[in-house]
Design goal:
Layout: H1 3-36, H2 52-61, E1 73-74, E2 90-94, E3 107-111, E4 117-121, E5 129-131
Antiparallel strand pairs: 1-2, 2-3, 3-4, 4-5
């Protein structure tokens, strides 16, 4: 490989790395902006779910932006663990798992638009618990 081609390759790699870093920082800042203005005490669940669930609930209440592209997508209820409803009724959101290398197994699934029911799963849809959620308006 010629020295010029090598320099071009390194330049392309550097630009791609910089773009990836900017994208990651932007997603982090978007999540911080979405939750910074919210009083986290307005949205809460019982203490038996992980504390990261409160951040997810705050993002749902603010209608995003969400840190994962799948957040807010339709949950199909293929496992039939939740009550039957027409397609599109359920939406899923990631509950961060700090030690996980990927999205992890924890989710909040909402029902209705706007959400009228909330469920938590810590085992990737094997079991669900209905959450009692308050947002200060009830």
């Amino acid at each position: 490989m010629s020295p010029t081609a090598r320099r071009v390759l390194w330049l392309v790699i550097a630009v791609a790395a910089a773009a990836a870093i900017v994208w990651i920082l932007d997603r982090h800042e978007a999540t911080e902006r979405a939750t910074a203005g919210l009083n986290r005490s307005l949205v809460f669940v019982d203490s038996t779910v992980p504390p990261e669930a409160n951040t997810t609930l705050a993002l749902i209440a603010a209608e995003g932006p969400f840190p994962h592209h799948r957040d807010g997508s339709t949950f199909q209820n293929r496992e039939h663990q939740l009550p039957d409803h027409p397609g599109g009724y359920y939406r899923e959101y990631t509950v961060e798992t700090p030690e996980a290398a990927d999205r992890g197994a924890r989710r909040i699934v909402t029902g209705g638009n706007p959400p009228e029911v909330y469920y938590y799963t810590g085992d990737h849809y094997q079991t669900f618990r209905r959450l009692e959620v308050t947002d200060g308006r009830r």
